[in-house]
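Hi R.,

As promised on Friday, here is the backbone we talked about, encoded as structure tokens. Could you run it through your design pipeline when you get a chance and send me back a sequence?
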């Protein structure tokens, strides 16, 4: 029986490529016509049969089930919609095939989800650097390395155990059918051994190189992901929220490894950013692969949401929550007011625009836009947070505050270089500030009575100026209060 792949009409240009490839395999190409469809069928082994349909179809990022733009109906299991361009499909494939010729290293990397571990390393480093130069002066490069590598090893362990426990369900899904455990390239015993090795080494590295809090968070995250999250995936939609907690922990680990507390305002903001970011990111992916998740037997929102109402609502709602964080961060004086502009209005404004497009038209194409936006959104918001962080807003000095307790000159020089680089980037950003360009003349505003005035004429940016006016007014009020007290005491 010939299998079929449905491709939108805009892919017709690939017809001769498909025909040539089929002939190279020695399989005859039979051509039949319908009123609006050209059907090319190729026997199994000779290549997949291809529908060139004039009606547009939305497609998943890679191998996902096809869904029509208007009614959300999913094509039969033998009519999976994929991009005709093989290079495009490969570049977006979440789980690339594990072929017999693949090296053992690549199979182990796939088993431990190396790309996901790289994301974990970046968020852990983000949390560590958010502590700022004053806090980093009391840590060292080995501590930073231990936190990053240890967290990555714990993430790899959790991912490996997850695949060991879900191998039968992965076998039913197209996007996971080529994982090493499913194909037999790696045995369950070897995978379990790898999970134990990475988990143990990650826990030891965190224990020896960081602190007890960071170690407990890392080891606990293995249990939370491989245990509760994996258990809930086929049983309850709550699994997504549990998984979001797992993803929110690494930046908090970076913060605690740098000497902070998990209850600090910065730690809460870092964790909240990663927690909320995962909902637009994952629910877009969940929608594109909804039929695949259903075939695997997973309890996902999109599986039980044929019209996409709940999925669109969650993406939009959590996008709004995420957009509020830069304003909260500014209100708590963790970041400068410009973070509310760059991160809260500009960056999140575009993300909400993409989410609203999906809300209006629940197609796989719009879901993919939400997913791709989330990929570049995260590094951008992390960089903006660091650039606008008040902890990195100081002048570079060579005093004892930048000398480590252990007297390490190498670490001190690296820290000074990092702060100089951060200040240079901040200076370039101020030069590009739109508000500075508008207010291009020096502002001289005086606050207070004639006998007690303060001039405000530093930054030209109205946002910074407004904060300066408020601070100066408060300072003047405090001075006048002191004068009144002194005068009342002199009368006595």
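Update: got your reply. Pasting your designed sequence below so it's all in one thread:
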């Amino acid at each position: 029986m010939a299998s079929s792949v449905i491709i939108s009409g805009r892919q017709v240009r690939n017809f001769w490529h498909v025909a040539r490839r089929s002939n190279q395999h020695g399989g005859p190409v039979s051509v039949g016509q319908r009123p609006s469809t050209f059907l090319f069928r190729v026997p199994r082994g000779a290549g997949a049969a291809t529908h060139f349909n004039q009606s547009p179809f939305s497609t998943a990022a890679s191998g996902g089930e096809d869904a029509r733009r208007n009614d959300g109906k999913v094509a039969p299991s033998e009519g999976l919609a994929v991009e005709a361009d093989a290079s495009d499909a490969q570049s977006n494939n979440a789980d690339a095939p594990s072929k017999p010729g693949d090296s053992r290293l690549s199979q182990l990397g796939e088993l431990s989800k190396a790309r996901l571990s790289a994301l974990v390393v970046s968020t852990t480093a983000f949390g560590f650097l958010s502590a700022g130069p004053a806090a980093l002066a009391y840590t060292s490069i080995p501590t930073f390395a231990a936190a990053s590598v240890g967290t990555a090893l714990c993430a790899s362990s959790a991912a490996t155990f997850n695949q060991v426990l879900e191998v039968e369900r992965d076998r039913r899904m197209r996007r996971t059918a080529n994982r090493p455990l499913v194909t037999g390239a790696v045995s369950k015993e070897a995978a379990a051994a790898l999970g134990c090795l990475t988990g143990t080494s990650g826990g030891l590295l965190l224990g020896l190189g960081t602190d007890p809090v960071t170690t407990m968070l890392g080891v606990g995250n293995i249990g939370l992901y491989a245990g509760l999250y994996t258990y809930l995936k086929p049983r309850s939609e709550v699994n997504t929220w549990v998984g979001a907690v797992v993803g929110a922990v690494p930046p908090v680990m970076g913060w605690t490894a740098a000497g902070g507390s998990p209850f600090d305002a910065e730690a809460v903001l870092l964790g909240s950013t990663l927690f909320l970011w995962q909902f637009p990111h994952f629910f877009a992916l969940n929608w594109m692969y909804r039929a695949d998740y259903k075939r695997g037997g997973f309890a996902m929102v999109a599986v039980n949401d044929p019209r996409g109402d709940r999925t669109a609502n969650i993406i939009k709602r959590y996008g709004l929550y995420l957009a509020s964080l830069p304003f909260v961060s500014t209100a708590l004086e963790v970041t400068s007011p410009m973070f509310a502009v760059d991160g809260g209005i500009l960056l999140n404004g575009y993300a909400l625009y993409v989410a609203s497009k999906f809300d209006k038209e629940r197609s796989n194409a719009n879901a993919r836009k939400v997913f791709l936006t989330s990929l570049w959104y995260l590094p951008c918001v992390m960089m903006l947070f660091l650039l606008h962080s008040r902890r990195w807003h100081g002048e570079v000095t060579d005093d004892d505050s930048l000398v480590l307790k252990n007297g390490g000159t190498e670490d001190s020089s690296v820290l000074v270089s990092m702060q100089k680089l951060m200040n240079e980037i901040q200076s370039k950003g101020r030069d590009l500030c739109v508000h500075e360009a508008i207010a291009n003349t020096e502002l001289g505003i005086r606050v207070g009575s004639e006998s007690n005035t303060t001039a405000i004429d530093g930054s030209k940016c109205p946002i910074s100026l407004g904060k300066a006016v408020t601070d100066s007014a408060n300072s003047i009020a405090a001075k006048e209060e002191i004068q009144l007290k002194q005068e009342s005491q002199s009368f006595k």
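One thing I noticed while checking it: Residues 1-94, 395-401, 403-408, 438-460 have pLDDT under 50 and may be disordered.

Thanks again,
M.
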